[in-house]
Batch of 4 targets.
Target 1
Amino acid sequence: MIEPVAEASFKNKVKEASIKGTLLFELVNDVQRFSKKAKVNICCDLGGRDGGNLILLERYGVKYNEAYVIDLFPRPIFKNLKYIRLDLSKDNLPFNDSSVDLVLLIEVIEHLIDPDFCLKEIKRILSPGGIAIITTPNLAWWPNILLLASASQPIFTEVSSRKIYGRKGSVVGHLRVFTYLSLLEMLLDFGFKILKYKTVRTSVTEQLPKFLQIIDLLVHKFNKRLGCDIYCVATK
């Protein structure tokens, strides 16, 4: 039996995955297409905590032989997933070179002390033809531009590990912040080949008042770089 908090979180994932243009909608569709073209033998969700992303993909028909959740504080609640505890900023991933077909790094890179180390490891383990899906909040989301113009602290950024200053919100442990161009440049610098790169909506945008959601859609339509979240599909 799944604990109530995890079950509620998974229901939210299922809901988001049904909304066109959201992060999880894109994730499900891209992995579905990939799994139809190539066999997914080994997949891993880095920083996936309980592995809900992998279970979501299963629900949409994605099949794999081995599935791993790697996290500093894993929550092993799904029996068909293998959970491994390690630090993505300093511990080598427990896979041979070029052996993993699908790597997920979903809303995680912004939490890492050393994202460079993690990206090197992802490139090392990714199989020829395999894909890595990497997402992170976009510092240049249009509300942040307005917040900066008013001398307020941008959303997704934190100056303290204790509380939020300069705006409302709660501490979530973001150590790094990326813009559309900075993440793209970083991935290219590490030798990744970009198959898809865009900004998407998330549960954050879905919680905005209706009129702000409309503005968000309009801004995104005219400037793809100002969306809420950065979404990348890469190979090596």
Target 2
Amino acid sequence: MAEVEWPADKVERRSVESLIPYPRNARTHSDQQVSQIAASIREWGWTVPVLVDGEGGIIADHGRILAANKLGISEVPVMVATGWSGA
């Protein structure tokens, strides 16, 4: 069986302010959704890292970053995906 190469296999912490939202993100989050995500983070903690590219561009989890801002969280766990292109 061939070994699978994972583009994001290490978790690190980054400041929320250093993360860059993807400008063409198709998903939008209402204030109510962000509040629900924030409530989940308050109750359960941060359970899954945010997926970012090498420059800190958010690939997935824009809603949780909005919730982190709402909660005053300054650092979040991220996984950096390498080898992906914007094409």
Target 3
Amino acid sequence: MSINTAATGNSFFDIKMGTAGAFFLGAIVFAVNYAHGWQLALVAASKQGLYTFIIGGVMTKMTENIAIRIGQRRKALLMAVLIPTLLTSLLTFGMHSLKGTPEPFISTLPTFVFAPVGFYGWALRKRKQFDSLKTADLTN
């Protein structure tokens, strides 16, 4: 098994992180839009939940892949946070701008606030795992 495969497993999607993000951000978007009625809040939360499951799972893997594939650690962590955060924020705003979300900008703010923190923590964790695997591989 190569170091990259051991560190990333599935290269394209993280089901556990997608699911966790879907429930977390879906609940926040429901609360943000609740003043417009539970039906509209449920539509917005459902869109956010489904979107976060799919895109969040993909972006988490993107974060992980960038964090271990760029040689310089600081640059790897910076890119592993910036690229997925910008993509996720733009896609989230676009999704909420479609008909059905009463507060698209406010519904996007949780993603813009929590995504960098989550991506940084995940990138740091995966980079540490990768570095320790690389060190162990060199000593064997």
Target 4
Amino acid sequence: MRLFSFLFLFLLLLHCSGTPSSAPESYSFDRLNLAHYPEKIPPSIPRSFLPESAVFIDSSELRSGFANARESYLLLESTNTKEEIEKTLEARSAMGDWKLIQKDSEGSKTVYLFEGFLNKSMSVLVTDQGDKRYAKYFFKKQSSY
């Protein structure tokens, strides 16, 4: 039920935005935080996975308690090439605290699956759409601590 309400509120945010605007908007519902053009990203997504030149488009965070994020999502747009973004992700996983479990490439899309310490997982979808690249980060923590 929580996941359904999380997805419903997130989709409501995306579809009720009206005219496109780059002004930051944020909404908080109990343990759920949604943001359109956020000024900061969810703290559970490591900044070292992000490309240098990025514009944050959407983010969401579902907390299990006061400070622990259970799920997070971030959508960003970058002018870096797809290969540069992939190189950043692979170099970051080589540092050791996030392990690259799977990488699948198909045309203009690449999907990564990372596993972190204490049952954390993160999926990253990188897409190439002409002169812009988009990256979607999905973070999930399986444990309760």
